[in-house]
Structures are given as structure tokens and as C-alpha cells.
Amino acid sequence: MTSTVNKEDQKFAVTEVREGAVSIRHVNWTELRSRVGLLSNALRAKGLKKGDRVALVASNSVETLTVFLAVTALGGIFSSSSTDMGTKGILDRLHQISPKFIFVDDAAVYNGKTIDLREKIQALIEGIKNDKEFEQVIVQPRFNKPADVSSLTKTTTLARFLQAANGNTKIQFERVEFRDPFIVVYSSGTTGIPKCIVHSVGGVLISTAKESLLHRNLDPSSVVLQYTTLGWIMYLSTVLALFPGCRTVMYDGSPFQPDLTTFVKLVGDQK
Predict the structure, then answer these.
(1) Would the pLDDT of 31 be above 50?
(2) Which of the two ends of the chain, N or C, has the fewest CB atoms closer than 10 A to its terminal CB?
(3) Which residues, 6+ apart, have CB-to-CB distance to 51 below 8 Å?
């Protein structure tokens, strides 16, 4: 894909930071476009079409952002939950939207601990396997060495899933209407099962332009860090910082590890 004004190929689009700033990874627009193109073409090859729902239970990472952008490029509807939510809470959300695919991290890091998510993945599969739209869980590796998920049913690894794209990294956007659904978020669930809140393509874009350009005075030289998990609407703020060409900093884990000073220093270092 050719470079875009304020989103030039070699400019950093995303900075991924793991808890305690022990790992910092910069991704430029070329790499991000390539990742999105590869996954979107794999999803298309696997039958994802406009209006299909894709859910994600994962951390704030480049891999997660790739899913968001790939799904919405195809006109699919994105929805996410955080890894620290209970299985029942996640299923209460999933049953309402009937996702075709579910992307899940194989592990989570929080407060100095690494949590193996394979047991939760199997519980989610058992809870959703009879939904007529559901086809498969795609497991994303949270570390360099992926967890062994060969014993899990209706599951594949991200690497295996991407093979369906045959190496094609060109993004082919699906034309959508202004009013088409774009993302599903949820109420808190304090008064029963969480209620679905659907945001449209046009509504999100107008609100993004208003909030980023008018309210927050963001421009292509800005850097944005919104501390959030994927179970909260503020994840949308993290993603949509890309709209005006900002660099978005995606922090995964507790901001208090090993102490708050580390997080404050990170904010200063990343400007």
C-alpha cells in the first residue's frame, strides 16, 4: 500500500509496552498495514463477510489491534472482552452477538504474574460451541513461544489461520454505509446481563473527528496513551488515536508494577 499523508510508511503508528516497561516494541505504518492485510485476507478466505461478528478476549497489543482493523476493513463487526473477566461474564456477551470467530490470547500478564489462559479458552469453547454462527477460536501467542493448544477443540493457532491468506498482504476494503454497525460494546452488567450497545461506522468517525481534533487538539505529531483493558469502551480511544495520524501507546498490565514511578517515567520517555 502506498504511503498516506501523516501516516507515512516508516513513521511509527504503535508502541506496544508490556507491564513494567520490560518490553517496548515500535511498529511503523508499513508493518501495521502488512499485518492487517494478511489477517483480513485470511478472514476473507475463511468466509468472513460484511456484517459477521468477530469477538476478541485479549490484551492491549499489536496483535489485538490487527484483529480490530482487519475485521472492520471487511465490514465485520468487532467486539472485545478482557482476559481478567470471568468465563460466565464473557459468555453473557458472546451469546448475544453470535460471533463467527473468537480470537483469544494464550496467556495474560498482570501484577507481576503470568496466567495460562488455556483452561479459560476451553471453557469458552464449551459454552459457545452450540451457537449456530460460531466456527472457530484463533489463539494468539502473548509471548515469543506460543502455548501448545493442540488438545483444545475447535481451535487453531494464529500462525496456522494466517496461512489461508497465501501471503497476500494487500488490504481490500469492503464498502460500507454510514449507518452500518461497526463495533459492539456493553453496559456494565450491574443490573443483569450486559446490554449490547452498537455503534455505527459514521457515528464512530464523526465522534472521533470531534474528540481528537476539537476536544483534544491532536495532530500527527501527538502521542496518545489511554490506560485501559479491552473490556471497556476506552479501548476505542486507544485505536482511534490512529485516525489523525498519532502514535498510540498500548500498555498491557498493571500500571503499579513494579511501582507507579515506572509508569510515570514511561509516560515521560514516550512524550
Answers:
(1) yes
(2) C
(3) 75, 76, 77, 180, 181
Q: How far apart are CA 200 and CA 184, in angstroms?
A: 9
Residue 138 has pLDDT above 50, yes or no: yes
Q: Which of 244 and 189 is assigned the larger pLDDT? A: 244
* Whether the Cβ atoms of residue 32 and residue 155 lie closer than 8 Å to each other: no
- What nine digits make up the cell of 193? 446481563
Average pLDDT of the segment spanning 75-104: 97
Where in the chain are the domains? 29-244
Measured CA to CA, the distance from residue 127 to residue 91 in angstroms comes to: 7
Q: Which pairing describes strands 23-28 and 12-18: parallel, antiparallel, or unpaired?
A: antiparallel
pLDDT score of 188: 84
Residue 173: all three cell numbers together? 476494503
Q: Please name the residue that has the C-alpha cell 465485520.
A: 76
In angstroms, rounded to a whole number, what is the distance separating the alpha carbons of residues 132 and 6?
Answer: 43
Q: Round to the nearest angstrom and report the end-to-end CA distance of the chain.
A: 29
Architecture of the structural domain at 29-244: 3-Layer(aba) Sandwich (3.40)
pLDDT at position 73 is: 98
Q: Under DSSP, is residue 139 helix (H, G, I), strand (E, B) or coil?
A: strand
pTM over 0.85: yes
